[in-house]
Specification:
The structure holds 2 protein chains of 2 kinds. By secondary structure, chain A is an all-alpha fold. Helices cover 73% and strands 2% of the residues of chain A. In chain A, a hairpin with a 2-residue loop joins β1 and β2. The longest helix of chain B is centred in the C-terminal third of the chain and has 31 residues. The chains are: A mainly alpha, B mainly alpha.
Chain lengths: 215, 192
């Protein structure tokens, strides 16, 4: 089934190889501010997940009717509609988290990752592929936010989802939950990911070399 | 009066849009390679922020009391079209000014710092004068962060940075240290 393999490739692409945060470094504006704890990161990731998937479905199914000249503004209005829906839903369901995320939920609109996916993928592909692509990218984003939020909460408060990890003798690194911690953690995570990628490439090179020698 | 000064200093230094709220990071990391370019981008941002504050105040006072759920969409549409309109106006009236700021204007319109400004000043319930001062402070703060970052980056290009760390990783760490330095301004709170 080549079709299924394609879909799987698209999904994995967003989750790992082209991860929107660690590889493409997109959508940082709303993410650094809210990742001071794992739960906030999950809420933000979930909200972005919904907005990205829903607008990808709408854009890819409307693509014949959107005139080329005004496509960007159309995408933005579609995205803004879903963000408004998310904003009100979160306010109704989980008021405490909504209060903590505050102004950063509406700012999902300005996440360049979402607009980028509409322009680069959803507007040119079938609804099915657009959904798969959006699911992959959104999961990649969620994963990155969660990684960032976990690191910051564990180091900054010694807790994970509010559960104490190290006992009372642990001195929390308060800096990690403050703004500078966001920049530093993301910088170090990016470093880690490019290190992993380089190791993998080197390994592949060496494998190719030994295979060449064998044949 | 005291109130306005306080809003200005707070937006400029203590709650710097880039270094404390992480807004406008895309241009912050993308354009801050050259000192000259980042200064001009900063000026263009101040300009757009002032327009934004005016639009946001207008919308809040006359439109959004009737339809609060339109807030996000109307902010985006109105700000983007006003900026576009003023861009055309500048092009006609002052080609030199257009040359200096022009290419940046469309870029800035979809910047999260602009939308963030509109949303923050609405949430804080600022009036017209307060909103304009807030916009001026935020814009100057953005310019300050951008110019400082550009200076640091020009230096770091010649520094012996490990190869893997070059690019975004080292820039983020520099930004983190800069942000730590700006946290010192929070002391102004207790002084006042």
């Amino acid at each position: 089934m080549p079709k299924q393999a394609d879909a799987y490739q698209e999904f994995i692409k967003g989750l790992w190889r082209d991860n929107p945060v660690f590889v493409q470094v997109l959508g940082m504006c709303p993410m650094l501010a809210v990742t001071n704890s794992a739960i906030n990161a999950l809420a933000m990731g979930g909200a972005t997940f919904f907005v990205l998937v829903a607008s990808s479905i709408l854009v890819s199914s409307l693509k014949q009717w959107i005139p080329k000249q005004v496509r960007i503004s159309t995408y933005i209005i579609i995205i803004a509609t879903f963000v408004t829906v998310t904003d009100f839903t979160l306010e109704a369901l989980v008021p405490e988290i909504h209060k903590e995320l505050g102004a950063f939920i509406p700012l999902i609109v300005a996440n360049c990752m979402i607009l980028g996916r509409q322009e680069a993928f959803a507007s040119r592909n079938s609804v099915r592929m657009a959904v798969v692509d959006a699911l992959g990218m959104a999961s990649g984003f969620l994963f990155a936010l969660f990684a960032l939020g976990s690191v910051r909460e564990i180091l900054g408060e010694g807790k994970f989802f509010g559960v104490d990890l190290f006992g009372p003798s642990y001195e929390p690194w308060v800096i990690m939950i403050l703004p500078p911690g966001g920049f530093l953690t993301l910088g170090l995570l990016l470093l880690f990911f490019s290190w992993v990628r380089e190791r993998k490439e080197k390994l592949a090179e060496r494998l190719a070399e030994t295979e060449g020698e064998l044949s | 009066m005291n109130d306005l000064v306080w809003i200005f200093v707070s937006a400029l230094l203590i709650n710097n849009f880039v270094l404390a709220y992480f807004l406008g990071l895309c241009p912050f990391l993308g354009v801050s390679g050259r000192l000259e370019t980042s200064f001009r981008l900063g000026l263009a941002t101040i300009f757009v922020m002032l327009i934004t504050a005016l639009c946001a105040w207008f919308l809040n006072t006359y439109v959004l009391i009737h339809a609060p759920y339109l807030r996000l969409i109307s902010f985006i549409v109105v700000i983007a079209s006003t900026v576009q309109f003023i861009e055309m106006l500048i092009k006609k009236l002052s080609p030199t000014l257009f040359k200096a700021l022009g290419i940046f204007l469309p870029l800035i319109t979809t910047n999260c710092a602009i939308l963030g400004l509109a949303i923050f000043s609405t949430n804080k319930g600022y009036g017209l004068a307060q909103g304009m001062i807030y916009a001026l402070g935020a814009g100057l703060g953005f310019t300050l962060a951008l110019v400082l970052m550009a200076g640091l980056r020009e230096e770091s290009e010649t520094a012996p940075v490990p190869r893997l760390m070059r690019g975004t990783a080292i820039n983020l760490i520099i930004a983190g240290i800069l942000s730590m330095a700006f946290m010192g301004f929070a002391g102004l709170f207790s002084a006042a």
